[in-house]
Design brief:
The complex is a heterodimer of chains A (154) and B (380). By secondary structure, chain A is mainly beta. Chain A has one domain. Helices cover 9% and strands 31% of the residues of chain A. In chain A, the strands form two sheets. In chain A, strands 6-5-4-7-8 form a five-stranded antiparallel sheet, with no helix packed on it. A three-stranded antiparallel sheet of chain A has the order 2-1-3, with helices on one face. In chain A, strand 1 and strand 2 form a beta hairpin. Chain B is built from 15 helices and eleven strands. Chain B has a nine-stranded mixed sheet with strand order 3-2-4-7-1-8-11-10-9. In chain B, strands 5-6 form a two-stranded antiparallel sheet. Chain B starts with a strand and ends with a strand. Classes of the chains: A mainly beta (154), B alpha/beta (380). Chains A and B meet through strand 4, strand 5 and strand 6 of A and helix 5, helix 6 and strand 5 of B.
Amino acid sequence: MSDWKKDVEVLVHQGKISVPYSWTVGSTLSRWYCELRDNGKIWANRCPGCGTVFVPPKAKCIHCYLEPHDWVELPGTGTVETYTVVRYEEPKLHPRKAPFVYGLIKMDGADTCLLHFIDEIEPEKVKVGMRVEAVLAEEREGNILDIKHFRPLG
Amino acid sequence: MEKVAIIGVAQSKYEQNKPETFAEMVYDVTRRALEDAGITKDEVDNVVSVSSDFWDGRTISSMAIQDSACAYGKDITTVEGDGTFGCLYGMMRILSGSFGVTIVVAHHKGTESNMNGITNCAFDPLVERKLGIDAVSSAALQARRYMNKYALKEEQFALVSVKNHGNAMRNPLALFPMEITVEDVMNSRRIADPLKLLDCSPVTDGAAALVLAAERQAKKLSTRKKRVWLLGVGHCSDAYRLGDRDLADTRALKAAAKRAYSMAGIVDPLREIDVAEVYDAFSYMEPLWLEGLGFCDDGKGCEYLERGYFHFDGRLPVNPSGGRLSANPVQVAGLAELAECVLQIRGEAGDRQVGEVNVALAHGINGMCGQSHCVWILGR
C-alpha cells in the first residue's frame, strides 16, 4: 500500500527558535536578590502559619497558602543533603565546565534546600552531610549566580 | 458514575530519528486505534492530544495535528504533560456528559531537539535555570538522596536496567532490547553520578492513541474481548522547587495511588494487581515509585526486585514492555503504558504477555523528579 515510502529520500531541515523574554522577578525574589547583591546577605522568609522557613523565599507557603511576611537572615552555611557530579558538557546551559558538582544544600536557619554548585573541593570528595558555606561573587548582578558556589566549611 | 472503557489502542514503533513528521505519526496511530476499535472517524466527537510545544518547536502544536487526529470539523484540546493525564482529561470530558467517543493521542519527537536544553527550561528562569540544571542532573540528585536515605547501592539500581532491557527483548516496539549485566550498567559511561548511561532512558520518537467510550456506547460499539474498563484513577502533585521537597519522599504518589485504589476497590495492591507499567525514566525511579504505589514498604523496592518479585515471571511483573529505559517517548510514555496494560488484559501482548491479567496498573509522571503523578487501574 505504502511501498513508495521505502524509496523516498527523507529530508531534514535545520531550525532554531530564538525568542527574547524580559521576566519580572516579582517583589519576593527581587527583595532577596537585592539583599544578596547590595549587602551580600542570604535571607529567607517564614510562614506565619506553620513556621516553615523558605530559601529562596516564597510568595506563599506551599503548605498553608499564607504569605510568609517574616524575613530572617541566614548565616550562609548549610549541610549537603544530596549532590551529583555532572560529567557531560552542555556549554550553552552550564555556567562551568564538567566535571562539576550540583548540591541541594539544607541551609542553616531554614527548612528547605538551596540548589547550587559545590566547588573548591575535588568532586570525588564531596559527601552527603558535609558542612558547606556560600561563597559570594565579587561582581553581583541580582541573580542566583551572585552566590558563586558553596565550599567546604572551615 | 458511568464507567468508561478503552475500546481501541495503537502504538508506533519507538525509534530514534523516525522519518515521519509528528503529524504523520499521529495519523498512523489514530487510524490504527480506530481500526482496532472497529469504528470510523465519524463516530468520534472528542479529541484530546498530548504533546509539548517546546519539544515540537511549534506553538499550539495541537492545531497542526488536528486533521491527523481526526479532529477536522470537530473539537481538539490538549494536555501538555504525560499521556496518563491526557487519558484523565479524555475521561473527564466524557463524564461531563458533553462528549461521546473520544480519541486520546500523544506524540513525541524528542530526537529532533536537545533534551537537556528543553528540560532545563522546565526550571524557574528566575532561580535554578541559570545554574544549568536539567532532567538528568536533577534525577541524579534524587537518586543520591534515595540511596542515602535507605542505604541503597548503585548495583541495585543497575538491576532495574538489566531487567527492563531484558524484557524489551520480547517487545518488537521497543528501541533498545538488550541482554546486559549489572557490570555492563556499572561500566557504562558516567553521566551524572550516581547515574550511568544505562541508568538513563533514551529519548525516543513515537506516538500512541487510545479510543475511549462511556459504558453504553462502549457496549454498543465494541466486543467484550476488546473492552477494558478504567476502574480507578488518582493524581497528585508535590512542590515545584526541588529544594522544597524531600526527593526520596513519595507523598504525592502515595496520595494518587490511594485515590486510584479506593476508586477501583483495591485493598492489597500486590495481591490484586497482575501487571504494572511504571515510569522508569531512570533506573532508580522504578523501585522508588513501586514503594510509593504501596507494593512494598519505603526503602524496600530494591530488595523486592532482587528477590525477583518484579521480574517477568515474578509475583508482580513490572514493565514487561521494557519500560521507559528501553524506549522513552516522554509525553507518549504514559499512554504507551495504558496501551500495554490494555493488550495485557486482552491477552494480546504477544511474547510479552505475562499470563492471565485481570487488573493492571499504569503510572505516569509530570515535572522534574516526579513532581506530579497519575495512577490508573484498568480491568476486565
